[in-house]
């Protein structure tokens, strides 16, 4: 990655992180409710019986309500567990499961650990992002876990990134290893990009 691209990514992430930290609790609660409604509709649209999702941090658009409701409806939800080698393990979400702080302070499940290939059986991937460009390019938080995961999948199902409405941007800095997404989910909308995006 060139220094110029790395610097541009770093600056944009810092700006987005600061904006997220300034949101009120009321705005966060409203965003979580909106994200849940959008994700519920997306799961129904795809007829998904197995999905991957992530447990949001306090500054991310909330996903905990969606995960709990999906598990109650009998949908198999895989949650990521970070590894020191840059790959992701997975655990099946269960109602009322214990949550621990994983690497980088990210909430992670404490259940039975499944390896990276567990993801091969899901119908839909729901992933975090710092921002998404209007052409489907995703800007992550810089650790490369999801770019590596998506880039290694032989048969990748639809991938939707979850961001706030203001984080759909005209463009984001990108490098060769960065992976596009099928669509984006915000508290107020779900947008699917042209098939060429993925």
How would you explain this protein's 3D organization?
The protein has 198 residues and is an alpha/beta fold. Helix 2 (25-46) runs parallel beside helix 3 (64-72). Strands 3-2-1-6-9-11-12 form a 7-stranded mixed sheet. It has a single domain, classed as Rossmann fold (3-Layer(aba) Sandwich). The chain contains 4 helices and 12 strands. It is globular. The chain has helices at 3-21, 25-46, 64-72, 145-152; strands at residues 50-52, 76-82, 88-92, 99-101, 107-109, 124-128, 131-133, 138-139, 159-162, 168-169, 183-185, 190-192.
CATH architecture classification: 3-Layer(aba) Sandwich
Number of structurally distinct domains: 1
The secondary-structure element order is HHEHEEEEEEEHEEEE
How many strands, what sense, and barrel or not for the largest sheet?
7 strands, mixed
Q: pLDDT average, as an integer?
A: 91
């Amino acid at each position: 990655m060139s220094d110029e691209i790395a610097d541009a990514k770093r600056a944009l992430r810092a700006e987005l992180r600061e904006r997220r930290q300034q949101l009120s609790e009321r705005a966060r609660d409203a965003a979580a409710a909106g994200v849940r409604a959008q994700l519920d509709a997306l799961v129904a649209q795809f007829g998904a019986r197995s999905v991957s999702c992530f447990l949001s941090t306090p500054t991310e658009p909330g996903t905990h309500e969606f995960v709990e409701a999906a598990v109650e409806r009998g949908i198999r939800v895989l949650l990521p567990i970070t590894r020191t080698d840059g790959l992701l393990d997975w655990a099946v979400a269960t109602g009322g499961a214990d949550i621990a702080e994983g690497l980088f302070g990210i909430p992670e499940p404490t259940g039975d650990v499944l390896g990276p290939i567990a993801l091969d059986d899901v119908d839909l991937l729901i992933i975090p992002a710092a921002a998404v460009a209007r052409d489907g390019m995703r800007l992550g938080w810089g650790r490369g876990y999801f770019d590596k995961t998506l880039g290694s999948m032989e048969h990748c199902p639809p991938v939707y990134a979850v961001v706030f409405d203001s984080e759909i941007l005209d463009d984001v800095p990108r490098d060769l290893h960065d992976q596009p997404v099928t669509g984006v989910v915000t508290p107020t909308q779900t947008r699917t990009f042209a098939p060429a995006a993925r």
